[in-house]
Amino acid sequence: MASEPVRAARLAVLIDADNASARIAPGLFEEIAKIGEASVRRIYGDFSSPRLKSWADILSAHAILPHQNFAYTQGKNASDIALVIDAMDLLHSGRFDGFCLVSSDSDFTRLAARIREQGVDVYGFGEQKTPEAFRQACRRFIYTENLLPEAPAADEPERPDARPASVARPASAAVPLLRRAIAQLEDEDGWVTLGGVGQRLQTLAPDFDPRTFGHARLVALVEKTGAFEVRRTSGRAIHIRPKPKG
User: Fold this and answer.
1) What is d(CA 195, CA 107) in angstroms, rounded to the nearest whole number?
2) Cα dist. 157→30, 100, 170, 215, 216 in Å?
3) What single-letter DSSP state applies at residue 139?
4) Rounded-to-integer distance, Cα 61 and Cα 194, Å
5) For site-directed labelling of 178, which of 122, 187, 203, 240 has its Cα 20 to 30 A away?
6) Cα–Cα distance between 67 and 13 in angstroms, integer?
7) By the 8 A CB rule, do 123 and 31 touch?
8) What are the φ/ψ torsions at residue 241 (nearest 5 degrees)?
9) Separation of alpha carbons 230 and 243, rounded Å
């Protein structure tokens, strides 16, 4: 008897238009497609404002449902409140496997934590300036700078000049975290699988992404640091270990 196909994770995508650039839209939904199906796509903001025209121009192209919230009072963000109310309604419907919160605003930290308390995954998308509290409240946090057209793509070959202008972190900055992940996994001779390191990195740092360091693939970043030995086996598995200090 043939087994039934595995259903893609059903995701609710909620976008804070005031704190996200419309330039990320194509890359955003490509990234979300790697996680599951964007069953709900909603965006919140005052679309009567010229400031959000760039979002208004592309809503239909990405099947995003706009939720208009007029800014009646200065300093009061009706859009944030509407997003939180909708998120809780969707959460309690029990229909979703995960939520994608698109914002750089730390005000959504408690929302992310509350959703995860319910046993539902939260994927955050925001700029590198996003406060750490919100980043850590998510299962994974993806920097939107890595979703722009100039960012390195995983399905393209690495180029020596592939470092996008939006990425400022040198490869060496990733070494301490890579060493920490390896230390938690290494066997007697110090070798660990690259795949195992990648999984541990997501646990240690929800916002870790080789694209932040200018590389589409983790192995390219590891090699670029010059701090690790890399061993490729005949089965195409990749193992790494720290180079001896000396």
Assistant:
1) 34
2) 18, 28, 19, 10, 8
3) S
4) 38
5) 122
6) 13
7) no
8) -155, 155
9) 9
Range in 42-56, 146-160, 178-192 with the lowest mean pLDDT: 146-160
Q: Is 58 left (phi over 0), alpha (psi -120 to 50) or beta?
A: alpha
Phi, psi of 41 (to 5 degrees): -130, 105
Q: Quickly count: other Cβ atoms within 10 Å of residue 227's Cβ.
A: 18
Find all residues with CB under 8 Å of 109, minimum gap 6, and list them: 131, 133, 134, 137
3-state secondary structure of 172: helix
Tell me if residue 59 falls in helix, strand or coil: coil
Cα–Cα distance between 45 and 183 in angstroms, integer? 45
- Find, among 151, 159, 202, the residue nearest to 177 by Cα: 202
pTM equals 0.85
| 165: pLDDT strictly greater than 80 | no
Cβ atoms < 10 Å from Cβ of 105: 18
The first and second tokens of residue 194, run together, are 């690259």
